Amino acid sequence: MADIWNNCLEYFHSVDLTRLLIACAVVVLMFVIKKPLVTLILRLALTALRRKDTAKYEQLKKSLSRILGYVLFLGMLVLALPYISLPEAAFAFINRVLTTILLLLAFMALYRTLMTTVKWFFSAKAKRESDHFNLTARNFLISGIRVAVIVVAAVSILTPWVGSLSGLIAGLGITSLAVALAAQDSLSNFFGSISIMLDKPFDVGDYIVIKDELQGTIEHVGLRSTRIRQLSGSQVTIPNANLANAVVYNETKRSQRRIHFTVGLEYKTPAENLSAFVKAVETLLLEDADVVNDSVKVWFDAFADSSLSVDIIYRVDKPNYYDMLTVKERVNHGVLKAAKDTGVHMAFPSVSVYQAE
Question: Domain 257-342 belongs to what topology?
Answer without folding.
Answer: Alpha-Beta Plaits (3.30.70)
